[in-house]
Each structure stands twice: as C-alpha cells, then as structure tokens.
Amino acid sequence: MKIDQFINTARDSLTVKRVYADPIEKDGLTIIPAAKLQGGAGGGSGHDPKGQEGEGGGFGMIGRPAGVYVIKNGDISWRPAVDPNRLVAVLGLVIIVVVICRYRVLRARAMRTPD
Predict the structure, then answer these.
(1) 91 and 66, same domain (yes or no)
(2) Helices (H), 1-115
(3) H or E segment at 64?
C-alpha cells in the first residue's frame, strides 16, 4: 500500500460516525450516543544496499463510550458513561498506594523512635 493510500484509509476511519452513533428515538425521547477515540499511525520508506525500495505503515484506533446526549421536550442533557472496569482499576491502585505509603510511614517512625 502506498503512503497516500494509507493516509486516506486512516482519514476515512476517523469519521463522525465513529464518535456519534445514529440517534435513537422512542416516545418523544431522542438519545445520541457518543464515544472517545484515540488513534496513532506511523509509516516510513527506505531502500537496502541492493537498491530495492519499500514503504509501509500502520494505524490503530481505540474507542470507548463517553456517554449520551438526551433530548426530551426540547431540553438537552448530557449523561456520562460509567466504565466499571476503570473504576475498579483506579480503586485498586489507590488501595495499593495507601498500603505502601502506610508501611513506609510506620517503618520510618519505628526507625526514629529510640529503643
């Protein structure tokens, strides 16, 4: 794949449809789902001592739900998505940091205290 084709493919991947899904309407309520996207790309070209040339690249993207816009009776509100996996990971990290810090504080106090 040529670099210009690669760039066009990556550009086509990052469309509004990847961020905002089609609206869902029911009983006078409209919901528009939204997502957060992150992506990265890289590419290059070169040649070997025999004079052969080559080029290539790669592209990756990840998306997570961000929340939904809710439209009811002409009023718009934002409802954020809650990722339970992320909450558990952050809570676990906080607990580990507290345990380590507490251990170090107790150890430092024990070393300062004369026998």
Answers:
(1) no
(2) 3-13, 16-19, 84-112
(3) strand 53-72
10-residue stretch averages of pLDDT, the chain, 115 residues long: 71 72 90 86 83 81 87 92 88 96 90 73
Within this chain, do residues 75 and 96 fall inside the same structural domain, yes or no? Answer: no
Specify the amino acid at residue 45. Answer: S
Query: What region does 113 belong to: left with phi over 0, alpha with psi -120 to 50, or beta?
Result: beta
Q: Are 77 and 87 part of one and the same domain?
A: no
- Helix (H) / strand (E) element for 72: namely strand 53-72
Tell me which residue range forms the domain holding 98.
Answer: 82-115
Q: What is the pTM of this model?
A: 0.54
The dihedral of CA 107, 108, 109, 110: what is its sign?
positive
Q: Find how far residue 24's CA is from the centre of its chain.
A: 24
Residue 54 contacts residue 61 (beta carbons within 8 Å): no
Shared-domain flag, residues 27 and 74: yes
Amino acid found at 56: G
